[in-house]
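Notebook B, p. 112. Complex prediction, attempt 2.
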Amino acid sequence: MGSYLTRHLQVLFATLGDMARTPMASINTILIIAVTLLLPALLFVSIQTAKSLSGQWQGQPQFTVFLQKDISDGAAQLIFDEIQLHPKIELAELLSPDDALAEFRILAGRGGGNLDSELAFIGENPLPASIVVMPKSGFANAQHLQALEQELSQFDGIDSVRLDLAWTDRFNAMLNAFSRISVLLSALLFLALVLIVGNTIKLLIYNRRDEIEITKLVGGTNGFIRRPFLYYGSLFGLFGSVVSLVFLLIAASLVAKPFDQLAAAYQSSGFVHQPTLMEIGSLVLIGITLGWLSARWAVAQHLRKIKPS
Amino acid sequence: MIQLSQVSKRYPNGHEALKSVSLEIAQGEMVFVTGHSGAGKSTLFKLITRIERPTQGQVLVDGKNLGRLPERKIPALRREIGVIFQDHKLLMDRSVFDNVALPLIVLGMPRNEIAKRVRAALGKVGLHGKEKQLPITLSGGEQQRVGIARAVINRPSILLADEPTGNLDEDLSDEIMDIFADFNQVGVTVLIATHDLRQIERMGKRTLHLNEGALIEHG
């Protein structure tokens, strides 16, 4: 076991030495990997950022049920009772026109203005009574919410129902579609990466053709001959993913400011998703795996063709 | 040790390199193979090292039927056979030490053990103290001896040499042949392909003659 480890370490350091001996070629390959990994990484960070923003906006889904303007207090109470007893509804709150005006006064007060004189001009409170409805959490998905919205708008005395979630739902649906496309795009990029790095490894194999022939002749096993190339691939992947992380940090710091401004515009404390240690580890692992796969693919295709002559 | 029965080898391009060749080389024997170029000497060596498979017939090496030898057992076969080439087949960008050590490195032998044996092998072929040099800085005869050191370092039971004295003058050729004779003395089976009739006469060993793929044996 000890000597097995020693042999692997020897190959590892020999491969590092070989890479250092052809620095330009190695840097080229590492940059190709870094740039190719950067795009999926950027997509991932964007999606995570968008998801966390959407999470802040979302909270608990809510309906606002607006009652007809000319409805009596008694009729409003009856509707409220009925809604409150509805099996799909967790909680309901009745807002009388006066309550609504009071809330409006608070919101409008922030911006200053002379609300009272405007109200005096209208002559009466223009706001309808409304009921804020929170569905039970089991019915908080888009399908149930839409069904519930339909049902409520059939009620007598109800003017309109506004599902506050409509636009965040749309946003989430778009985000999901975008995530799918990103996954597909990343898979294609990974495939391209394996082909490109595989081709680089192929060139390395043919550069060392003599060495491979002689090693085969003196009884080197396929595993032994394969090993340095697998190290080449894995090390390319390792260095490529580390460089790609550096690029990612630079890119993130470039977009952080406009993102924060965007978030501030939606009254949420905006932030660009900071990659966790786990995600950084995954990126490096993906890099190493892809590099190894490239080498494995190249080796399987070309090593057999080299015969001692 | 080496046994061919009714072996024919036809290459994909239609060239028939060996035609129904049968021969037997006993353990510890030293045998010369002659014949003009293209007579099938190289093909014979490639069959013994399982670089090529016969189209017909059977090749037995150390009791193993090479026709049935699975791919994964080829390395073990080749570790039993040391091969020496006319063009040496050295790695020109590696030191003499690394070249000679290769058969031991593929075995995963510890570094200090390798160093000991490389020095011993280089001493035996008269290249003491040249470990660190690159093969390109050595003369043709010295390069050939690096090749011999590499072939014998793993103490193989068979040595195959393809025109080992092809480019060397008479004195150097004598030296190289004597090295082979020394290994033969300690029980190694030696098979040498050569044009060098002077050496064949000098050594007085059994000689196989190949002519256009067919075997004609002389005493």
